[in-house]
Amino acid sequence: MKRAIIVLAAISLFSFSACKKVENNPTPAPAAPAAEAAAVPAAVTVDAAKSLVLQLNALPMKAETEAAKSNAKVTIVEFSDYECPFCSRAEPTIAEIMKKYPNDVRVAFINNPLPMHKNAEGAAKAALAAQRQGKFWEMHEALFANQRGLNEEFYTKKAAELGLDAAKFAADMNDPAIKSLIDKGMKDGGAYGISGTPSFLINGVLLVGAQPANAFSKVIDEQLARANKVAGEKNLSGDALYEELVKTAPKPAPEPEEDEAPTGRVHVDLTNAPILGNADAPVTIVEFTDFQCPFCSRANKTLHELLNANPDKVRIVFRHYPLPFHDKAKLAHQAAEAAKMQGKFWEYYDKLFDNQNALDRDSLIKHAKDLGLDEAKFVADMDSPAVAAVVDADLKAGSEAGVRGTPHFFLNGTLLSGAQPLAAFQGALDKELDAAKPYMDKGLKGTALYEQVIKDNKPAPLVVDIAGSPFKGAADAPVTIVQFSDFQCPFCSRVEPTIDQLMADPAYAGKIKVVFKQLPLPFHDKAQKAAEAALFANANGKFWEMHKKMFANQNALDIENLKKYATEIGLDAAALEAALNSDQYKAAVEADAAAAAGVKISGTPSFVINGKSLVGAQPIEKFKEAIDAALKEAGK
């Protein structure tokens, strides 16, 4: 049987984990490392109303048996990144799943190197170059085994060890066709709603993250049952069966509508942003958009209809948000900014949306000439670092505001995402007009009203009871970082050096206090007792010493080793064992877990910084942004 053209449906992605729902177009910004999930999120099924086509035979494929490669009833399409630690962690799980279902599961691999991983694209090229000589999976394994040493020297050395033709490997690494294949994988991932790695499509059902094997098994068992039913009813097998399964995958249930708008509103700075409509309008719609995104083009028409129907009630404020997998978007946004410098932003904006298939450099210049712009100045501005910085600043502002896809709107700070119909915009506008009336009665309008309504409706700070919890830093520090962590979680271990760097930074001397809370995750079999051991150490004045020992020895957290660490830091090992056997500190650990649940934290590592959430093993810059914002709010 020929390897098939596989039809995959565009995904309607609902909010869970780090993903956000965007109407038919859940498109990604570079994803930060997510927290480990304490609970398995529901899989998200595809919406078969719109379909896209992948050539499965272009993808590396593996299965436990040769027969399964062509006739498996369940196909897992994996979107992954060789520099992503979560992807590495998922690999043993995938191997376990293949062994559990040797005749029923096959795995196809798509490279999805994330922009924040500087070596990921090179590694993807190395894997695909090795594929051309029949050694994809060997190179694949080597890349994951050496995530901290991904560079040209390693790729060349590994190619030689695998017996590859060195000249051909080097040429293939630089072949534009391989780069195009990687770009296509990223673009396909974005179109399917995949915003981070690892992500998996299981017969068209999306499962996100390095989930435990039972999460995969749950979806696979459901898909096997469906596959057996469809195969019997329609006499299908292999790729033809898979096509049918994907096309007929059950649609997700619609999200329940909220009776009330969220109490918290998102503030986006309007300084120097282009504004369309009545400057004094009581409702401000901040629009984050991408000129290459077809759904943004559709939303643009709806916005104009809304503005025409409500000329004195609403204004549109534009912010740039070119998505990384749209190859022409960034320059198009710089071109729009250059047009703004000659007073023709909105005219150029319409040109771009009216000509989405003509966003190459020559076309951008032609659009400018059509509008009578000074060509030399336009080109100079479009290419200037200053204009690129404006676009980058908008991207950063959008990311900080929670934008993960386009189009994305905030009506006086209240979220409305996706290319919604006019009725949805009108309904949201009417609700915001009601909310704005008291401010209008006070004489506020335009930006002043926008700023005040958001100021008066800030999200309530997250409150965590920290009494009695171990902490380090100044007791009266203006910034408190509450850290929920799991001693068996590798991502918790990874963030520890970041916390140490922050504590040692002279700029934050006396300004930071770190409070540690226990959140052992249920799928970490030794985490509960490790947490109890930490609290025993805390009761005996040795918490941070025990904390350091356990994070340094995450693979050895059984009770005998916990006793060993206790002895090494001067604690009574027999007393520790008695405390663990009697569950003396179990209730205290459960209280910390309850505190986490109270502020909607379910994974580790997670942080509450002066009442605001920060999730995951984030880079130090993210912590500094949060700390600096907290210091500013505290007037420090």
What is the helix fraction of residues, given as a range? Answer: 40-55%
The main sheet comes to: 7 strands, mixed
Tell me the total number of β-strands.
Answer: 19
Count of structural domains: 3
Q: Stretches where pLDDT falls below 50 for ≥5 residues? A: 1-54, 252-263
Q: Decide which structural class fits the backbone.
A: alpha+beta
Mean pLDDT across all residues, rounded?
85
Defining key terms:
single chain; about 625 residues; alpha+beta; Glutaredoxin; 7-stranded mixed β-sheet; 24 helices; about 15% strand; globular
Describe this protein's structure.
With 636 residues, the chain is an alpha+beta fold. A seven-stranded mixed β-sheet has the order 1-3-8-7-5-6-4, with helices on both faces. The protein has a five-stranded mixed β-sheet with strand order 9-11-10-12-13. The model is unreliable at 1-54 and 252-263 (pLDDT under 50). Helices cover 47% and strands 15% of the residues. The chain is globular. It has 24 helices and 19 strands.
Topology:
Layout: E1 5-11, E2 36-37, E3 44-55, E4 61-63, H1 66-71, E5 74-80, H2 85-100, E6 105-111, H3 120-131, H4 136-145, H5 152-161, H6 166-173, H7 176-191, E7 199-202, E8 205-208, H8 213-234, H9 238-247, E9 275-277, E10 283-289, H10 294-309, E11 314-320, H11 329-340, H12 345-354, H13 361-370, H14 375-382, H15 385-400, E12 408-411, E13 414-417, H16 422-441, H17 446-455, E14 471-473, E15 479-485, H18 490-504, E16 512-518, H19 527-539, H20 543-552, H21 559-568, H22 573-581, H23 586-598, E17 603-604, E18 606-609, E19 612-615, H24 620-633
Parallel strand pairs: 5-6, 10-11, 15-16
Antiparallel strand pairs: 1-3, 2-17, 3-8, 4-6, 5-7, 7-8, 9-11, 10-12, 12-13, 14-16, 15-18, 18-19
Helix pairs in contact: 3-4, 3-6, 8-9, 11-12, 11-13, 11-14, 11-15, 19-20, 21-22
